[in-house]
Write a structure and sequence with these properties.
The protein is α+β, with helices and mostly antiparallel strands. It contains 17 helices and 10 strands. The strands form 4 sheets. Strands 1-2-6-3 form a 4-stranded mixed β-sheet. A two-stranded antiparallel sheet has the order 4-5. Helix 8 packs antiparallel against helix 13. The structure holds protoporphyrin IX containing FE (HEM). This is Cytochrome P450.
Length: about 500
């Protein structure tokens, strides 16, 4: 008798459990917004969270397999969040020219840690973004950033970099910190008129903190954009470290603003901060204006953050590929010697006369795919797109990596082949699909500066040095490390002087 009662209870419990799982499953499926683009369904409630965890630290291969399976526009869910992944040049251009697909998701972490929400450029939306972006552009124009008139500032920095590399006297070094210092210094000169000595302890510390955060933020900056209230209070792991680093970097930025305020001369603004403070003074009366100290704080943080890691990493991929392809390195050097000579360093004016050098730089940027997943966008409204609906609030990722590795666009795309960008008579081929800086209304604000820095950085380094893999060092690896950018694995190099 007891046995019958027990088996009855077990049956009821089992039936109840199955019913719950079915309800959970059905509810999970029903919470999938209607008419989404195709994509992997994953588990109820969790979506593809499990697959994403397994794909860590590099989700690019997983995304690529979804692109192959579901097409150019793929959707998936991670918990309650809906993502749309854009996998071809055409869909990225089309989506990013749509006014409702150009907002940014909010960063819960930045908002909680620094009190910066709809501020600055990168994370701002609507009128604030429009005004701040336009102003930043106008400051770049008036300071000549990315133009010939700014070339001397960049060249001075490259001199400092060269001298620091010469001090190594051919012994092996990790280029990360030195390249980072050179590139950050150029942004610092734009933002607060300072070019630091590489021995400056505070400057080194700030760079290390920013570096850490780039890595800690995980594939495509996932942690930065995780909508988890209280994330800044998590007392352990990556979130705790990121918040601490962010606060320290921000203290450094606030100090810069404060010292500029103390010696501001409105008739002689020197840099981004001065010009911003001037603008604030002029627009004080306009209640509707977004020129405020909090937006200034955010904007200079954006420049430093967006302008340092990206360009540093590009230069690191350059040296890595040159070590791996010494014959190509020699060919670039021969072209430089022929066009520029040995008496001076390369200048922007030489750019059009250096097709092979440019082709190598482009191929490095294609293979390096530094901004592999761009910077996330978010849909401002339910939006019809290619026969599907991208729901309001969906996070949109541009799979720039996929475009740059597309076999259709770049035959034998796995191979490193700069010659693919040269005509038979040696002229440079320009291809619009090379969207290193994204496209559309949010296209990289620092594109001109970055192009100038990578060209002058790469050419002046190869003009002065030959880079070699140190004897007995581990084999070169071309695996990327995906944080906000797609970084190289750490490596050592030897720079042998050519003079
Ligand atoms: C090789 C170097 C660089 C690469 C590959 C790169 C790439 C990108 C990409 C892919 C985006 C996202 C665009 C989008 O949302 O669709 C972006 C945004 C941005 N970049 Fe860059 N970038 C580089 C250097 C720089 C530099 C040097 C600066 C400034 C000093 C800069 C400032 C910005 C800013 C402010 C944004 C946000 C634009 C907005 O939200 O309106 N970037 N960049």
């Amino acid at each position: 008798m007891e046995w019958i009662v027990q088996s009855d209870t077990s049956l009821w419990l089992m039936t109840g459990a199955i019913a719950l799982v079915v309800m959970w499953f059905v509810k999970g499926l029903m919470s999938r917004p209607k008419n989404l683009p195709p994509g992997p369904v994953g588990l109820p409630f969790l979506g593809v969270a499990w697959e994403m965890m397994r794909a860590k630290p590099d989700p690019l291969a997983l995304y690529s397999s979804w692109a192959d399976q579901y097409g150019d526009v793929v959707s998936f869910k991670v918990g309650p969040m809906t993502f749309v992944l854009l996998n071809s040049y055409e869909v990225i251009v089309e989506a990013f020219s749509h006014p409702d697909l150009n907002n940014r998701p909010k960063s819960q972490m930045v908002e909680e840690a620094l009190g910066l929400a709809n501020n600055g450029v990168i994370l701002a939306n609507g009128k604030v973004w429009e005004e701040q972006r336009k102003f930043a552009h106008s400051v770049f124009r008036s300071l000549g950033v990315g133009k010939k008139s700014y070339e001397d500032t960049v060249a001075t920095e490259m001199d400092q970099l060269r001298a620091a590399i010469e001090e190594k006297e051919g012994s092996s070094f990790d280029p990360n910190l030195l390249f980072g210092q050179a590139v950050a210094n150029i942004v610092c000169s734009v933002a607060f008129g300072t070019q630091y000595k590489y021995s400056d302890v505070e400057f080194r510390q700030i760079l290390n903190l920013m570096n850490d955060n780039m890595e800690l933020s995980s594939g495509g900056g996932a942690l930065l954009f995780l909508p988890l209230p209280g994330i800044s209070k998590i007392p352990f792991g990556a979130p705790k470290k990121m918040v601490k680093n962010m606060k320290e970097v921000n203290k450094f930025l606030l100090n810069q603003i404060e010292s500029h305020e103390k010696c501001l001369d409105l008739d002689h603004p020197r840099d981004f901060i001065d010009l911003y403070l001037k603008k604030m003074a002029e627009t004080k009366v306009l209640e509707t204006s977004s020129y405020s100290k909090i937006n200034l704080n955010s904007a200079i943080g954006d420049l430093l953050f967006a302008g340092t890691e990206t360009t540093t990493t590009t230069l690191k991929w350059c040296i890595l590929y040159m070590m791996a392809h010494p014959e190509m390195q020699s060919r670039v050097q021969r072209e430089l010697d022929h066009v520029v000579g040995r008496e001076r360093l390369p200048r922007l004016d030489d750019r059009n006369d250096l097709p092979y050098t440019n082709a190598v730089l482009i191929e490095v940027q294609r293979k390096g795919a530094v901004a592999a997943l761009g910077v996330p966008h978010v849909a401002a409204e339910d939006t019809s797109f290619r026969g599907h609906t991208i729901p309001k609030g969906a996070t949109i990722l541009s799979n720039i990596w996929k475009v740059l590795n597309s076999e259709e666009l770049w035959k034998d795309s796995d191979a490193f082949k700069p010659d693919r960008f040269l005509t038979e008579d040696g002229k440079l081929i320009k291809r619009e699909e090379l969207i290193f800086f994204s496209v559309g209304r949010r296209v990289c604000l620092g594109e001109q500066l970055a192009r100038m820095e990578t060209f002058l950085g790469f050419t002046s380094l190869l003009h002065r040095f030959t880079f070699k893999k140190p004897d007995n060092s581990p084999p070169l690896s071309f695996e990327g490390v995906l944080g906000i950018t797609r970084n190289t694995m750490p490596y050592l190099t030897c720079a042998l002087s050519r003079d």
